[in-house]
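Standup notes, structure subgroup. Blocker cleared on the adenosine-5'-triphosphate input:
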Amino acid sequence: MPSEKTKPRSANKTSKATSSMRILFADDETHLQTLMRDALTRRGYNVTVCPDGLTAVAALEKESFDCLIVDIDMPGMTGIEVIERARELRPEIDAVVMTGKPSQETAIAALRSHAFDYLTKPCPLADIARMLERVAAHRDIKRQLAALQHRLHRAEGDSQLVGSGNAMQSVQKLIEKVGPTESTVLIRGETGCGKELVARAVHANSLRADKPLVAINCGALPENLIESELFGHCRGAFTGADAARTGLLEVAHGGTVFLDEIGELPLAVQAKLLRVLETGDIRRLGDNQTVQVDARIICATHRNLEQMVEEGTFREDLMFRINTFELTVPPLRQRTEDIAVLAEHLLRRHRSDGVSGQLFHPDTLAALVAHTWPGNVRELANVIEHAAILCDELPIAPEHLPSRFGERQLRKEIREADPMTLKEMEMLAIQRSLQRHGGDKKIAAEELGVSLKTLYNKLNAAEERRAAG
Ligand SMILES: Nc1ncnc2c1ncn2[C@@H]1O[C@H](COP(=O)(O)OP(=O)(O)OP(=O)(O)O)[C@@H](O)[C@H]1O
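Run returned:
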């Protein structure tokens, strides 16, 4: 007999959360098929009823369900086998065993197949309804988690480390070497150069990759909060601690902790952290008990820790504890060969058009490569975001870059140049503005704050000076 599907008749007796739930019920007892179909349909569920395991698997192959309720003893295929097949076909499904012959063996088999619940027949309808409420709540949590993961992914961008130049290749090789070890890693590099991304890559290359990576920015929290954030606290541990809180080091149990900006950690917290790193024991604020935590530590800093040790602002013993393996991410200006591919990668965060065409005008790329990027890849990401907003149709032209971008570059050129006259400085500003705007004198004049006529006069005068030698 094929599976039978019914649409909900009324959702009166069930909450809004459960009403749209799709249930697959498989049992060879015909009176139970009728009972479940009628009772659950009346309660507003979408019910599909199957007389055996094979039909249930066929239904699972065709469509998705929120909940699978199966009898254990069925002809052709046992309920546990159906659940195992459902795990492969629909990993998100919550499977419930309903058996008339409860036993330790079937209960253990249900547990091992990660069944959501185990009910025994005859099972009152009220119990089934309560179980379905819990399935609905579980489904909502899974959806919220998926939405949060999606938002996180959007906020963080993807974790792909882009760059195939020699410098990034060396970093990549070190990541692959140190990743699978349990060593503590210290990542050094200027701000915005990709230290967090490198930390994520180390974690992804580790045996803990399927466990959480908990990132903590030690510089972003005030001194009085960082301790409770790292180690957690008991209720009433300090004024305002209305509820107990698990520290992030504990949350990362089994996985990795990324301590970003470790150089910003106050000295008192440094001492506590060192104890945790040495013993693996965490004591929540206000607690007498300790908890054993197994977390791999990755740290990052843009500060000179050796100098901080000399100045007495960073503990030497902590530095030796965290720098077992060091990885330095070079600043962007030292890997200009990666700029074009990084720019394309970052543009893809905002634009999906121009798939086959050119994404950047050659003058834009030239301007990006010429820049010295004090804010590294983060600055590049911001410049690209700005350009992606301004540009209606790809490729990105120089005029889509932020105007301040060229100014900063000009200021730097002037700072670093040999002494020059005011006239030469003026010409440098004019040339850079024209370069930025693809030779468009009208836009350049506006940017420089002079009339078009004045710009022509200045260019002609410069030409005459050059001709005169
Ligand atoms: N090699 C790379 N490939 C792709 N994206 C990168 C790369 N390096 C950095 N980014 C991007 O640049 C931005 C800054 O990177 P990240 O936060 O890792 O830098 P950071 O060195 O940790 O910064 P800070 O010193 O401020 O903590 C992020 O959006 C990141 O995705």
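Discussed briefly. The longest strand covers residues 94-99.
Next: hand off to the docking folks.
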